[in-house]
């Protein structure tokens, strides 16, 4: 963790420190396979662990009969409950069911799916005794709920404000769908941050040797080869700026593409060799795929042949094979060629010469594949650099972004200028004609705003869509959204009014028609509203008018009709549904915990009954209790398998009623001798003090004899008490309650000590002031209180 220092670029705002207790600063890397959570603390950014102490949380959601299993618990359900377990769902966000990418994705899935009424993907999953259809946003919302819980567990506060990572190639619809998922999980997304930009921020933020803003920037290429995709960005850094210059990607090429290549290879081999069709069994497919992934990882480390061996893969057959790195590279040669495409594209689009590139930083789990690193060397003429944490940089960048947006931290000025990968155009009807205008070009800076001018006498509609023929666009669905401008009226003379429309791609990369105004030109001294000049561009799309008069701006209503965003009423319903599932998960966990408590009690007691508790249990109780334990054990696996929480609580209470007496006797037997010994020590000390007084010790010669006598009497009484009780305890068997408890001994000691202290710690009077002495003075008695342990 980065330590706080006065010159540190990152620290808690002094005047807003209270905010840090109420506002969260969190970055989530939503990987296709692994999610990471980074939080900002006063000392800097820290990647936090989940309840299993792992820093990564698998992006898996599994629905059980009674509750959800998300993250690590979900992953363990992949082989056991494949029909109700969803993973690899990130790319389905905001995609139509019929999109070829969706269909390719679903082909490998083991869960049931359907097209929803609005044409998107629905997962058909069994949950709580019913088959229900969940949207991708809901499943992502469940994962985000889990991640939010992990962040809250670490920060010990409610988490809402955050920055979420998003693949740089995500379309408008995908970004909107993710934002809805975040709302379902109760998160307030301050910004969606492109994954490769997050990595660039994690790289540049702490660099102290970047060129001045007036100098030539340092150019670094970031390459993220994750589980599902490849993202490449060329970035220019100066002291206070990060400028993304170019970005390219392959949205469907990542580590899993190599796993699937291996899976297909070995499935074909085993078909011939062992006469088994692995793909006919989900379980066998899942096992073989997992082994292929392991093999791929081992091949990253060694060049020799690596064995692959699975016992009882299917039809009771054990399978064996081998592969070397060289064979793997041949088998996946076309995939490596595909990796080269976006690498070359970024180099070309950025306009950078190889020599201008300071470093090529690689991140993402699959960037550990050696042939991938060789490609970097081949294309950029530089060794791949691995100075960043390959798994955690995206989450760190997101947390840094969150810190710089949030008021909780004061961070150094470092502006992130990102780009939107795809060109967007606007279409509208005018006098029965279709018109289209480019509004944002591909690789255009974000955020970006434009003002468009129209002349209309009534409500009208604008359609935004991606420009056709953008080969990198990962969807066939070009529509971005329709936006209806309402409340438009003609001018007094019946002529169309002038309407200014503000369109924007916001910092999250989401397109919107943000506002529309009717612009009235008036003569004379009318109240004049200043024109909004915040747009980068002001485009007058139609015939210009006479502009010499003053203007009055009247806001108009813009109604977005965007399929990928859930309408407010539907969003409310799914937020409520998520809330109910959180509550039912919590109740189910409590129920399971109470069942486990009974089970643990049975096993613990059975062990201890023959061991430490044995002498403290009367023989007849032992028999009854043992029988009760066996009966409870059987009950837990039969009738008691599935009971409500209060039944388990009651069962545990009943068992404890039997065990509490001997457990208490055992505990007393451990503690009572210590208390008895302490009382005896107090008696010994007090007796010594009385003897010192009687011997005329100077230390006590100011004490009253009657007081000391009271102590002497108390000593005899206490000694008699402790001796009698000891004898009584010794006379009884251990399985009977002792005639005195630990706390009684403690009480006796406390009252005895109080008496002794009041007598022996009485302050010695100060000797009267004496005139000058000629003889040497008698040394003053030191005031030393009696120690009573
Ligand atoms: N040593 C290794 N050699 C090869 N591949 C590896 C190695 N270690 C991890 N991987 C692969 O990295 C991939 C996971 O990478 P990562 O965690 O970066 O993905 P992600 O962030 O979840 O996905 P994405 O970025 O695509 O959304 C898996 O395919 C995994 O097999
Ligand atoms: Mg990733």
- Number of domains in the coordinates? 5
User: How many helix segments?
Assistant: 16
Q: Which regions have little confidence, pLDDT < 50, spanning 5+ residues? A: 1-7, 526-534, 773-789
- What gross morphology would you assign? extended
In the CATH classification, which architecture of the largest domain applies?
2-Layer Sandwich
Q: Structural class from helices and strands?
A: alpha+beta
* Main sheet record: 9 strands, mixed
Gyration radius, rounded: 38 Å
- By CATH, the topology of the largest domain is Nucleotidyltransferase, domain 5
Proportion of residues in extended strands: 25-35%
Strand order of the largest sheet: 24-23-27-28-32-30-29-26-31
In whole angstroms, how far apart are the ends?
Answer: 46 Å
Protein name: Hsp97-like protein
Region (Disordered): 762-789
Family: Belongs to the heat shock protein 70 family.
InterPro entries: ATPase_NBD, HSP70_C_sf, HSP70_peptide-bd_sf, Hsp_70_fam
Name the descriptors:
Substrate Binding Domain Of DNAk, Chain A, domain 1, 789 residues, HSP70_peptide-bd_sf, HSP70_C_sf, nine-stranded mixed beta sheet, ATPase_NBD, binds magnesium ion, 16 helices, Actin, Chain A, domain 4, Hsp97-like protein, seven-stranded mixed beta sheet, alpha+beta, ATP-binding
Structure description:
By secondary structure, the protein is α+β, with helices and mostly antiparallel strands. The protein folds into five domains: about 10-250 and about 340-415, Nucleotidyltransferase, domain 5 (2-Layer Sandwich); about 255-335, Alpha-Beta Complex (Actin, Chain A, domain 4); about 420-565, Substrate Binding Domain Of DNAk, Chain A, domain 1 (Sandwich), CATH 2.60.34; about 585-660, Substrate Binding Domain Of Dnak, Chain:A, Domain 2, CATH 1.20.1270; about 665-760, Substrate Binding Domain Of Dnak, Chain:A, Domain 2. It contains 16 helices and 32 strands. The strands form seven sheets. It has a nine-stranded mixed sheet, with no helix packed on it. Strands 20-19-14-15-16-22-25 form a seven-stranded mixed sheet. Strands 2, 3, 4, 5, 12 and 13 form a six-stranded mixed sheet that branches. Helix 9 runs parallel beside helix 10 and helix 12 packs across helix 14 (about 645-695). It is extended. The structure holds adenosine-5'-triphosphate (ATP) and magnesium ion (MG). Adenosine-5'-triphosphate binds near residues 31, 228, 297, 364 and 391.
């Amino acid at each position: 963790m980065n330590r706080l220092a006065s010159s540190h670029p990152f620290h808690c705002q002094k005047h807003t420190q209270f905010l840090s207790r109420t506002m969260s600063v969190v970055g989530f890397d939503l990987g296709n396979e692994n999610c990471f959570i980074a939080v900002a603390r006063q000392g800097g950014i820290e990647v936090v662990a989940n309840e299993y102490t792992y820093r990564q949380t698998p992006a898996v959601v599994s629905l059980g009969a009674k509750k959800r299993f998300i993250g690590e618990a979900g992953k363990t359900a992949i082989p056991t409950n494949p029909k109700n377990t969803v993973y690899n769902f990130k790319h389905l966000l905001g995609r139509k069911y019929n999109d070829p990418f969706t269909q390719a994705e679903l082909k490998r899935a083991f869960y049931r799916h359907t097209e929803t009424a609005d044409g998107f993907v629905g997962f058909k999953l069994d949950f709580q005794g019913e088959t229900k259809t969940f949207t991708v946003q809901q499943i992502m919302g469940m994962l985000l709920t889990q991640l939010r819980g992990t962040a809250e567990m670490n920060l010990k506060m409610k988490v809402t404000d955050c920055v979420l990572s998003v693949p740089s190639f995500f379309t408008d619809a995908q970004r909107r769908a993710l934002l809805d998922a975040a709302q379902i999980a109760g998160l307030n997304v301050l910004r969606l941050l492109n994954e490769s930009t997050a990595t660039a921020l994690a790289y540049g933020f702490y660099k102290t040797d970047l060129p001045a803003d007036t100098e030539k920037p340092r150019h670094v290429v970031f390459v993220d080869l994750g589980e599902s995709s490849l993202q490449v960005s060329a970035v220019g850094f100066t002291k206070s700026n990060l400028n993304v210059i170019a970005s390219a990607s392959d949205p469907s090429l990542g580590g899993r593409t190599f796993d699937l290549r291996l899976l297909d290879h070995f499935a074909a081999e085993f078909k011939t060799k062992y006469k088994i069709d692995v793909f006919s069994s989900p379980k066998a497919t899942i096992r073989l795929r997992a082994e292929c992934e392991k093999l791929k990882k081992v091949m990253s480390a060694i060049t020799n042949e690596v064995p692959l061996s699975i016992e009882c893969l299917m039809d009771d057959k054990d399978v064996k094979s081998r592969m070397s790195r060289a064979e793997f590279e041949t088998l996946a040669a076309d995939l490596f060629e595909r990796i080269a495409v976006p690498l070359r594209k970024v180099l070309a689009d950025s306009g950078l010469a190889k020599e201008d590139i300071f470093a090529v930083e690689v991140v993402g789990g699959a960037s550990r594949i050696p042939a991938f690193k060789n490609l970097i060397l081949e294309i950029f003429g530089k060794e791949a650099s691995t100075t960043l944490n390959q798994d955690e940089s995206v989450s760190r960048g997101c947390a840094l972004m969150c810190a710089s947006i949030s008021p909780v931290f004061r961070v150094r000025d470092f502006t992130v200028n990102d780009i939107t990968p795809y060109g967007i155009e606007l279409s509208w009807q005018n006098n029965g004609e279709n018109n289209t205008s480019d509004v944002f070009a591909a690789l255009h800076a974000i955020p970006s705003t434009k003002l468009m001018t129209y002349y209309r006498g009534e409500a009208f509609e604008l359609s935004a869509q991606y420009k056709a023929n953008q080969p990198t666009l990962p969807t066939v669905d070009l529509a971005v959204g329709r936006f209806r401008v309402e409340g438009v009226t003609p001018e007094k003379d019946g002529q169309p009014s002038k309407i200014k429309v503000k369109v924007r791609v916001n910092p999250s990369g989401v397109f919107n028609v943000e506002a529309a105004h009717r612009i009235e030109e008036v003569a004379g001294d009318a109240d004049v509203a200043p024109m909004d000049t915040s747009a980068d561009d002001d485009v007058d799309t139609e015939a210009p008018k006479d502009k010499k008069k003053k203007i009055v701006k009247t806001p108009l209503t813009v109604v977005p009709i965007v399929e990928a965003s859930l309408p407010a009423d539907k969003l409310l319903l799914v937020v409520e549904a998520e809330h109910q599932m959180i509550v039912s998960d919590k109740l189910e966990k409590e129920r399971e915990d109470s069942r486990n408590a009974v089970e643990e009690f049975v096993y613990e007691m059975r062990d201890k009954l023959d061991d430490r508790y044995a002498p403290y249990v009367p023989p007849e109780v032992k028999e009854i209790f043992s029988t009760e334990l066996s009966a409870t054990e059987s009950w837990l696996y039969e009738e008691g398998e599935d009971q409500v929480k209060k039944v388990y609580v009651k069962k545990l209470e009943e068992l404890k009623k039997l065990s509490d007496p001997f457990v208490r006797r055992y505990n007393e037997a451990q503690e009572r001798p210590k208390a008895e010994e302490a009382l005896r020590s107090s008696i010994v000390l007090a007796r010594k003090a009385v003897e010192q007084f009687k011997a005329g010790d100077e230390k006590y010669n100011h004490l009253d004899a009657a007081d000391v006598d009271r102590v002497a009497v108390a000593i005899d009484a206490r000694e008699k008490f402790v001796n009698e009780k000891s004898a009584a305890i010794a006379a009884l068997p251990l399985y009977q309650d002792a005639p005195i408890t630990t706390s009684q001994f403690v009480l006796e000691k406390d009252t005895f000590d109080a008496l002794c202290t009041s007598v022996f710690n009485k302050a010695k009077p100060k000797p009267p002031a004496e005139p000058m002495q000629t003889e040497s003075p008698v040394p003053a008695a030191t005031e030393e209180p009696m120690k009573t342990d």
